[in-house]
Design goal:
The chain is α+β, with helices and mostly antiparallel strands. The chain contains 11 helices and 12 strands.
């Protein structure tokens, strides 16, 4: 492997990449933070508050003195979400307070298990707890204003004699926990944790969220910059994305999707590699729905192709719902609340 290869090394290539209770779990991210630019792309302390508005949704992110939570800090949430979803698929009731071995998280997210790795993990938890989010959420026709942290708290239950954390306890925010209980999550490629650049990770999240299993998806550079939360000028942002597309053309390093640039229309184009879901251990085969549900679905998401929404719903499902029809209708309502008219 050459020094300029764009992926991080696979630091834990043995069978314990996802260890302990989530041995056969796939990484999962919540839809809210995949849709909106919650996390900072900076690798240095980012203390600038930011405000994001798109399709009627307003999100304000305020940092603590330690700075905003970063894209790499999100690994902790992905680990917690993956563990709880795996437990739900096994019939366990999810708990808002989750306890785990720090070494398990470091291995699962392809991080260093050295002293520096533990120090970085502790700093990441501090930024996650300190970052505050304020947003308006439309539910049932009512707009609700809510402010919260990404995690409510984190504590080290035990430390080794060398000062390294061993067991960690994290209390997830209501926002994240509610997304888990509603299974508003998407499966991510394990190769996500090998992406070096925060912008690469953010582009992958958006591709996974918006392209999914479709053949392709495109987005203008201006809107992409907005969704990434980049503080660069549009010209510089365009150069950064073009560099990622150039590397992807050479190494095919981006998981699940090819990244291309349409210079004429000033768009980024995402093309599926056909790998999404191929290695998902917990593939779900939801039975056919009652034909009568589709008319109710059209009322829940007026103007949308409900068969297309059903395809997305099935691809996102991580377990067979107790009542598939009601679950599908709920998904349609949330789809319309987030996107509005097509």
């Amino acid at each position: 492997m050459t020094a300029d290869y764009p992926l991080l090394p696979d630091r834990h290539p043995q069978g314990d990449f996802f260890v302990c209770d989530i041995l056969d779990a796939a990484p999962k991210g919540d839809l809210g933070s995949m849709e909106h630019p919650i996390f900072s792309l900076s690798t240095k302390p980012d203390t600038r508050p930011r405000r994001y508005e798109h399709n009627g949704v307003t999100v304000e992110i305020k940092p603590s003195v330690d700075g905003l939570a970063t894209v790499h800090d999100r690994d902790i949430l992905i680990y917690c979400i993956s563990s709880l979803i795996k437990g739900m698929n096994d019939g366990k009731e999810p708990q808002q307070v989750i306890r785990f071995q720090a070494s398990d998280l470091l291995k699962a997210t392809n991080r260093m298990t050295t002293g520096r790795g533990y120090s970085l993990l502790k700093a990441a938890m501090e930024r996650l707890a300190g970052t505050r989010i304020s947003t308006n959420i439309s539910t049932g026709g009512q707009e609700i204003f809510e402010t919260f942290g990404l995690i409510e708290r984190a504590k080290i239950v035990r430390e080794s004699r060398e000062g390294r954390m061993q067991e960690v306890e994290v209390k997830l925010s209501d926002w994240v926990f509610n997304a888990i209980r509603a299974q508003e999550v998407l499966t991510l490629s394990r190769e996500y944790f090998r992406l070096r650049k925060p912008l690469e990770r953010r582009i992958y999240e958006l591709a996974r969220k918006h392209c999914g299993r479709q053949k392709d998806w495109r987005i203008s550079m201006a809107v992409l910059q907005k969704k990434c939360g980049s503080g660069s000028t549009l010209r510089e942002f365009r150069r950064l994305v073009s560099a990622i597309a150039k590397e992807d053309a050479e190494y095919s390093h981006m998981p699940d999707y090819r990244i291309e640039i349409d210079e004429v229309r000033d768009h980024m184009v995402v093309r599926s590699r056909g790998t999404v879901g191929r290695d998902i251990a917990e593939h779900v085969n939801i039975p056919s729905l009652d034909p009568d549900v589709y008319e109710m679905a059209r009322q829940a998401a007026p103007g949308w192709d409900v068969r297309m929404i059903e395809t997305e719903w099935r691809s996102w499902a991580t377990a067979i719902p107790r009542n598939p029809e009601m679950a599908f209708l709920g998904f349609c309502r949330k789809w319309f609340e987030r996107r509005g008219n097509p």
